[in-house]
Amino acid sequence: MYAFFAIVSAWASAVCYAAAALGCGYALFAAWAARGFARRATPPAGDYPPVTLLKPLHGLEPDLYANLAGFCVQDYPSPVQIVFGVDDPADPAVGVVRRLVADFPGRDLTLVIDARRHGENHKVSNLINMARQARHEVLVLSDSDIVVAPDYLKHVAAALAQPGVGLVTCLYRGAAAAGFWSRLSAAAIDYHFLPNVLVGLKLGLAAPCFGSTIALRAKTLAAIGGFEAVTDQLADDYALGALVRATGQTVAIPNTIVAHVCSEQSARDLIRHELRWARTIRSIDPAGFAGLAITHALPIALIGLVLGGINPAGLIVVAALACRLLLQSEIDRALRLRGGLFWLGPLRDVLSFAIFVGSFFGRGVQWRGHRYGLRAGNRLAYYGEVET
Fold first, then answer.
1. Is 309 inside a domain boundary?
2. CA 92, 93, 97, 102: dihedral to nearest 10 degrees?
3. How far apart are alpha carbons 366 and 372 in whole angstroms?
4. Same structural domain for residues 213 and 302?
């Protein structure tokens, strides 16, 4: 019996080492893809049309005022209307918006408070209520935890003006609000999410659309059925991109990078958030998500080392670590991200692998204090509020 288990362990170890070797190659390819993305240039726009920015809000997130103020100071030559929306007059975000209105009297700022529901996705319900106040043809929506540079709207408008483009979205990096867990969350975005998307784009395997930015014309939105078409979708951003692509138009990604503020304050917050992300991606593309297993080269190599014991093949662990650190360095350099998280790399890799494995056990997600399940077609089923 011992000999049997020894043979099985040896074979399992060899499989892990082979997978880790593939993961090393993947990391090197991702580093190359990041460098190529950074060299792309956004074509200049012939003109800059008036824009309505839609900012759905929920609760008092860290640095919310500063995040929203960045949209109020855009260097953009045409009129910009900003519509903020909440579904509860007691939402603390209301006070932040009223402060913005007072601090930026020359800006066209509107607050919509409307509790009407149009489906299970609360954010989409908010957007439907807000969209009625939009006055311009070009609509740009983004999540409340996004930070942008002053030339953000120029890049987005230039990309949307290109022939055949129906929607524009933006890649995003992580920006830790404060604390150890938020830094781990930012590291997941910078060193796992970004490389995976860049590889998918390079190989033509990804069709992303992110809540960090969704820019489209009002006539395009009407042609796909409006926001009402995604009222029950968990991945409403991805669904909007898919609907626009189905019309024969493309989704453009300019080389401007926005920042997603990571505000996790505990391991529980981090795990809940990342499980939701992972299960969302899995629901969209099950086969592609399963293929992401090879991106976890270091944890898989460590499993191979445990199964096979110390032997020369175990050097793949060193190779996996080296490739991971090289990828991190290239991401920092090519995309101008803030470094300093190298020492978190191995821990982040192990945690990301645990999240990846855990995402296969169950389909439920927790989102903004509510619990949901998934029905056919990635539609949300509401289960109730999260117990605290």
1. yes
2. 30
3. 6
4. no
In this structure, the answer to whether residues 7 and 122 fall within a common structural domain is no
What digits encode the pLDDT tens for the residues 268-311?
989 988 888 888 888 888 888 888 898 999 999 999 888 877 77
Q: Is residue 283 part of a domain?
A: no
Report how far residue 344's alpha carbon sits from residue 331's, in angstroms, rounded to the nearest whole number. Answer: 15
Q: How many domains does the chain have?
A: 2
Name which of 74, 65, 43 is nearest 140 in CA terms. 74
pLDDT higher than threshold 80 for residue 236: yes
β-sheet bridge partners, residue 52: 81, 139
User: Which of 127-136, 200-209, 250-259, 356-365 has the least mean pLDDT?
Assistant: 356-365
Same domain, 265 and 345: no
Q: What is the 3-state secondary structure of the chain?
A: CHHHHHHHHHHHHHHHHHHHHHHHHHHHHHHHHHHHHHCCCCCCCCCCCCEEEEEECCCCCCCHHHHHHHHHCCCCCCCEEEEEEECCCCCCHHHHHHHHHHHCCCCEEEEEECCCCCCCCHHHHHHHHHHCCCCCCEEEECCCCEECCCCHHHHHHHHHCCCCEEEECCCEEEEECCCHHHHHHHHHHHHHHHHHHHHHHHHCCCCCCCCCCEEEEHHHHHHCCCHHHHCCECCHHHHHHHHHHHCCCEEECCCCCEEEEECCCCHHHHHHHHHHHHHHHHHHCHHHHHHHHHHCHHHHHHHHHHHHCCCHHHHHHHHHHHHHHHHHHHHHHHCCCCCCCHHHHHHHHHHHHHHHHHCCCCCCEEECCEEEEEEHHHEEEEEEECCC
Identify the domain boundary among 216, 250, 277.
277
5-50 confidence digits (pLDDT tens): 667 787 888 888 899 999 999 999 999 988 877 666 666 666 899 9
Task: Encode pLDDT of 83-134 as tens digits.
Answer: 999 999 999 999 999 999 999 998 999 999 999 888 888 899 999 999 999 9
Integer angstrom CA distances of residue 373 from 285, 362, 387: 17, 9, 16
Can you give the length of the chain in residues?
A: 388
- Contact between 42 and 74 (Cβ < 8 Å): no
